[in-house]
Automatic annotation (TrEMBL), chain A:
This is Pyruvate dehydrogenase phosphatase regulatory subunit, mitochondrial. Belongs to the GcvT family. It holds the Pfam family GCV_T_C. It is found in: Mitochondrion matrix. It comes from Ursus maritimus.
UniProtKB/TrEMBL annotation, chain B:
It comes from Ursus maritimus. Heterodimer of a catalytic (PDP1) and a regulatory (PDPR) subunit. SUPFAM superfamilies: PP2C-like. Its main location: mitochondrion. This is [Pyruvate dehydrogenase [acetyl-transferring]]-phosphatase 1, mitochondrial. One of its GO terms (molecular function) is [pyruvate dehydrogenase (acetyl-transferring)]-phosphatase activity. Mitochondrial enzyme that catalyzes the dephosphorylation and concomitant reactivation of the alpha subunit of the E1 component of the pyruvate dehydrogenase complex (PDC), thereby stimulating the conversion of pyruvate into acetyl-CoA.
């Protein structure tokens, strides 16, 4: 071991940990036995000598860092680490957790050899030989605090507020399983600036200050604790700590049957249960098969395709970047991969990439004026994106970044009739000649002025996003619903949105895209300004990738022989087989009501059959394969596609196919 | 789901049942007479029929069934508990509240409650409710089927579309027609308010659409350019007649698809009455064909309730209808056209959809039946030609339309099939609903005159009255509340749980003898909105 070990012992236990920290330190030299004088400075100071702290220290030292101080108030591994049962479970819920546990398992075996400690096998052999020992009475029952997090996942990463302050905590009783892997990823993060795996699901920045209320933590953690031992069904929603952030329309939507899910503390409608339609009780609705909301979402999707639906999407993260001169454009051009020097009123889809060309964020940016931009990102980007922009933006009083998430209610009007509803409400022509796709205009809707109307829906369907100053939200919603009646308007939720976007091959950040996937790997070269001779973060990596080819490619799969009613559903993380060989995993999936098939998105790799090494993936490689998706051990044939099914974009129907039901309001 | 055929079944069943249990029961299946002599013959000539087998238990097993239950001798054994009674009563209840978007959607209709209680299996009544999306107004209707539910089902799905189309301005019709032509999404016409059990026939949806489209194409062609205000009364009459005509034509033309072919024939050979209300602001139109009824609940200044009938029954109790029928046919038929209070001695309602047996010429009936599917050919009922059938048509679907301008004291409208009206007086219906809706009970002294009442019974009545004060029978739906009274009321006008429980536990085969299908819609009006209309003038 290369690091210096420092034990800060305290003589008196008069108070709790941190309050006594400074006195503890000052009295350290006077303390008992083996205390050592604290160095005045160090490259890394690790607080806590349990499995996490020691693991980080171990990996940092393996990676060549020498100047490490590890502080521990008592003895090494004397806290919860000591009392853990020594169980290393490698069957985990999340892929990244799985990887950490696997690595820990390997590491501990290696450490056994390195250190020669073999307690656990010894005990097992002991019990095998003398089974009667199992019945030995326990003399002392140990009860010690454990750490839990609001979403059952650990917390890892750099603080968005203090640079260089890294956190690794909240192990939810799985510290031993994760210790090795988590320590390694954090050490990588500290040494290289990023970990070697996508750890977004564990990233500290998925939380904001809003999840730190004591009452929230108290309630949620009490729910989390038993859930740790529960079967993890897809689409599980926590029951406690809810209704923290809501849209001004929450009550109105709730009264109309909305069922809610929460992201980043924000309540978002999943779907709307029609009056007199019963869903299963909460417990019964836990299933890996066809869920009870299937028909409800179908009618919402159908309404999006044939009439018009409203989805409240207020949870989106919304930033405004403005400057006195060209500063805003300049910095954005450097931070974002697509060209933002577009005419005022245009919307640009662009990635916010890291040095490796991977997506730190995927967003839409509207140019409101020469010097001001409106940026829309996924809900859970609020902390991460803010921190990233702050870190990279120069200190300049003429350049202003503002989080306006709370200022706007966002309504998504999806469907062919959206244009009719909006033109009736704004007395302005909204047809594509007047309002082309990916366009943004401030206009009046009903009595309300200054509504930002954008011709995009995040689904590939026709329609508009309305960004409404919150005080007008109820008015605009009422107007839209009232005028929309004759066009068959209805409310819809995120499950309908998900089905629509996945069948159109729209990848979403946080599900399909992450810090390790690049635009070239998901067919988005057209959204990158590689040819414009402008520098931006990630450019070099992309240029290199363009020359060498990509090693994985986002592909859409349409399941062929899958029985929606009887077979287990795909959700995410299902293995993809190409010509019988493992080729990657799915990232998201949904039932497409239009194709009447399940659609999965996922990355296809090209692992060498001999060495397992990753090789270049070409379009030809994708197209020549025969694919299967493995759902819980059963493989289903799948058609691979690199481009969305074109027929989904045309809404014509043969007049012979029209039915009486086409005249129903939806 | 296809509507199962019942062309023949009710006749047989009623005859057998009346023979089996002749005492104490009176035949409720009134729409089609079962005592005419030809029926005895037709029953004898009856050949086993697959559709029959599915719906009717063989006689022997029915006996075992009813004796096994020992219903008649020890009824108290089979009482349903109050929660069981409630679950039966509430199975088909539906409520709709008109959504208001903060003064944006002001409607004179607050909402409606509806419910059905079957006596037939399956139920032959249907109900519909929808909001017109391209014009203002709301449509509500009850439909009482006979000789099966095929016709009432079809009318419940289609009639409102015919009405809505009849009300549409020329430009909207053109827009919809153009949208069909160019494959664009159609403007929705109706927003349905359906109970999950109120289904639409998926199979016939295209066929129905094509007939409707032909109708509006004709309306477009007929447009003379001079745009006039559309008259609701005329629109209602046109819609009723047109739909009945289409039902008749579809059956004559047939369909290459054998399922559809059989369906259109079943629709045409069965029948249905219809009572439909169109509410738009203070303008209330009621179009009625047959013997369902629309009743307005009016609250007098002293708070009491009175009933205003907005429809006339088309049956033998209506002098004007008798007169009409006599005028429409030669003098020598004056005695045969209505016999034993029935049209041609057979049919209770004098106006109805479908029932082509009373509309087509004998030639046409024979031709269609002969070329029709075997099921139809084997069916004695359809083959049978009514006696004294000289100058068809004897039956029409043309409605009688009444207009009423809503006043603030008009609080609600009850639309119901005859199943309700034959068990309850209209005044009681309006009082019960009125008291239910206002939560007010005008306690009337318990009248015991004419009955021998024990002290125990009186105690029971008083206890019940107290219980009623506290919970109004825990109904959340005015129609359910009304059904509870219709089925459970005792001689004193209060709900007798024992009686209710007995009535609801009747086996399928017996239920029809004690009561008819009951379908009720209670539409509640918004007096403030109605009052505001009045003040505007």
């Amino acid at each position: 071991m290369f690091y210096r070990l420092l034990s800060v012992a305290r003589r008196q236990r008069t108070g709790r940990g941190w309050q006594n920290w400074s006195s503890g330190r000052s009295s350290a030299s006077a303390a008992e036995a083996h205390s050592v004088a604290l160095p005045a400075q160090a490259q890394v100071v690790i607080c806590g000598g349990g499995i996490m702290g020691t693991s980080v220290a171990y990996h940092l030292s393996k990676m060549g860092w020498k100047d490490i101080v590890l502080l521990e108030q008592g003895r090494l591994a004397a806290g919860s680490t000591r009392f853990c049962a020594g169980i290393l479970s490698t069957a985990r819920h999340l892929t990244i957790e799985q990887k950490m546990a696997d690595y820990s398992n390997k590491l501990y075996h290696q450490l056994e050899q390195e250190t020669g400690i073999q307690t656990e096998p010894l005990l097992s052999s002991l019990l095998r030989r003398m089974p009667d020992l199992e019945t030995l009475e326990i003399l002392k029952l140990v009860n010690c605090p454990e750490t839990f997090t609001p979403d059952m996942r650990c917390i890892m990463g750099e603080s968005p507020a203090v640079q260089g302050y890294f956190v690794l905590a909240g192990m939810n009783s799985a510290g031993l399983s994760f210790g090795g892997g988590a320590g390694r990823y954090l050490a990588e993060w500290m040494v290289h600036g990023y970990p070697s795996e996508n750890i977004w699901e564990l990233d500290l920045k998925r939380f904001g200050a809003l999840q730190s209320s004591r009452t929230f933590l108290r309630h949620r953690v009490m729910e989390v604790m038993p859930l740790l031992y529960d079967l993890k069904v897809p689409r599980w929603d926590f029951q406690t700590g809810r209704q923290l952030r809501t849209s001004p329309l929450y009550d109105r939507l709730d009264a109309q049957g909305a069922r809610w899910m929460e992201k980043h503390g924000f309540e978002r409608p999943k779907y709307f249960v029609p009056p007199d339609k019963d869903l299963l009780a909460l417990e019964q609705s836990k299933t890996f098969y066809k869920p009870d909301w299937f028909d409800i979402v179908e009618s919402e999707v159908k309404c999006c395709k044939e009439a018009v639906c409203v989805i409240d999407m207020s949870s989106f993260t919304k930033f405004e970047i403005t400057s006195t001169g060209d500063q805003a454009l300049e910095i954005l051009q450097y931070l974002f991969s697509n060209d933002l020097d577009v005419p005022v009123g245009h919307i640009v889809h662009t990635g916010m990439l890291n040095q490796g060309g991977g997506y730190e964020n995927d967003c839409s940016i509207a140019r409101l004026s020469k010097r001001s931009f409106f940026m829309i990102s996924p809900t859970d980007q609020q902390v991460h994106c803010w921190a990233w922009l702050k870190k990279h933006m120069p200190e300049d009083s003429n350049l202003l970044l503002e989080d306006v998430t709370w200022k706007y209610t966002a309504l998504n009007l999806i469907g062919p009739r959206a244009v009719d509803v909006l033109s009736e409400l704004s007395y302005a022509p909204m047809t594509p000649d007047h309002f082309p796709s990916l366009f943004c205009k401030e206009m009046s809707v009903g009595y309300a002025n200054g509504i930002r109307v954008m011709s995009m829906t995040h689904t590939g369907e026709p329609g508009f996003m309305l960004y409404i100053p919150i005080e007008y939200a109820l008015h605009v919603y009422n107007e839209v619903m009232s005028v929309g009646q004759k066009y068959g308007i209805r409310n819809a939720g995120y499950y309908a949105l998900r089905s629509l976007r996945i069948e159109k091959f729209f990848a979403f950040w946080g599900q399909d895209l992450n810090t390790l996937t690049t635009p070239l790997e998901c067919g988005r070269e057209s959204r990158v300004k590689l040819e414009k001779g402008m520098d931006f973060i990630g450019r070099d990596a992309l240029l290199q990738q363009k020359q060498n080819g990509v090693y994985k490619r986002l592909t859409m799969f349409i399941l062929d022989d899958h029985d929606t009613d009887l077979d287990l559903w795909p959700w995410w993380g299902e293995p993809i087989y190409r010509n019988g060989q493992y080729a990657g995993k799915t990232t998201s999936s949904a039932y497409s009501y239009t194709l009447e098939r399940h659609v999965c998105l996922g990355f296809v790799h090209n692992f060498s059959e001999d060495t397992g090494e990753e090789q270049v993936v070409t379009a030809d490689f994708i197209n020549r394969g025969e694919y299967e998706i493995d759902i819980a051990g059963h493989r289903f044939q799948a058609k691979a596609k690199l481009y969305p099914v074109t027929s989904l974009f045309t809404h014509k129907r043969r007049k012979d196919d029209v039915e009486l039901s086409d005249l129903h309001g939806k | 789901m296809p509507a199962p055929t019942q062309l023949f079944f009710p006749l047989i069943r009623n005859c057998e049942l009346s023979r089996i249990s002749g005492t104490a029961c009176y035949c409720h299946h009134r729409h089609l007479c079962c005592s005419a002599p030809y029926l005895a013959q037709s029953r004898l000539r009856y050949a086993p029929h697959p559709a029959y087998a599915t719906f009717c238990r063989p006689k022997e097993s029915w006996w075992q069934y009813s004796q096994g239950r020992r219903y008649a001798s020890t009824p108290q054994k089979f009482y349903l508990t109050p929660p069981q009674v409630n679950s039966i009563l509430k199975a088909n209840e539906y409520s709709f509240k008109v959504p208001e978007f903060d003064g944006k959607n002001v409607s004179s209709v607050l909402g409606f409650d509806s419910n059905q209680l079957p006596a037939n299996a399956p139920i032959e009544d249907r109900r519909s409710a929808a909001t017109c999306l391209q014009t203002r107004g709301m449509l509500l209707g009850v439909f009482d089927g006979h000789a099966g539910c095929a016709c009432s089902q079809a009318v419940s799905e289609r009639l409102f579309y015919y009405i809505a189309v009849s009300l549409l301005p020329h430009e909207t019709l053109l827009e919809i027609e153009n949208a069909v032509e160019s494959g664009r999404a159609l403007l929705p016409i109706l927003q349905w308010h359906k109970h999950p059990n109120d289904y639409f026939s998926k199979e016939a949806s295209k066929l129905y659409f094509n007939s409707l489209r032909t109708y509006w194409q004709e309306l477009i062609d007929l447009n003379t350019g001079e745009s006039t205000d559309i008259d609701v009364k005329e629109a209602l009459i046109n819609a009723f007649k047109r739909l009945d005509n289409d039902i008749s034509l579809e059956a004559q033309v047939g369909d290459p698809n054998s399922f559809l072919n059989y369906l259109v024939l079943r629709v045409a050979f069965s029948g249905a009455t219809a009572c439909v209300a169109h509410v738009d602001g203070v303008d209330l139109h009621v179009a009625n064909t047959g013997d369902s009824r629309a009743m307005l609940g009016v609250q007098e200044e002293d708070g009491s309730w009175s009933a205003v009938t907005l429809s006339n029954d088309h049956n033998a109790q209506n002098e004007r209808e008798l007169e009409r029928l006599k005028l429409e046919h030669p003098k020598n038929e004056a005695k045969s056209v209505v016999k034993q209070d029935r049209l041609l001695g057979l049919l209770m309602p004098f106006r109805a959809f479908g029932d082509v047996k009373f509309k087509w010429s004998i030639d046409l009936q024979k031709r269609v039946i002969e070329s029709g599917p075997d099921q139809l050919n084997d069916n004695e009922y359809t083959k049978f030609i009514p006696p004294n059938y000289y100058t068809p048509p004897y039956l029409t679907a043309e409605p009688e339309v009444t207009y009423h301008r809503l006043r603030p004291q008009d609080k609600f409208l009850v639309l119901a099939t005859d199943g309700l009206w034959e068990t309850m007086h209209r005044q009681d219906v309006v009082r019960i609903v009125g008291e239910y809706l206002t939560g007010m009970h005008h306690q009337q002294p318990i009248a015991v005159g004419g009955y021998k009442v024990t002290l125990g019974q009186m105690h029971g009545l008083l206890t019940e009255r107290r219980a009623k004060m506290s919970s109004v029978f825990e109904d959340q739906n005015a129609a359910t509340h009304l059904i509870r009274h219709a089925v459970g009321n005792n001689e004193f006008g209060t709900v007798d749980h024992e009686r209710l429980s007995k009535m609801l536990s009747l086996p399928e085969e017996l239920a029809r003898m004690y009561r008819d299908d009951i379908t009720i819609i209670v539409v509640q009006f918004n007096s403030h909105v109605v009052g505001a209309y009045q003040n505007q003038e």
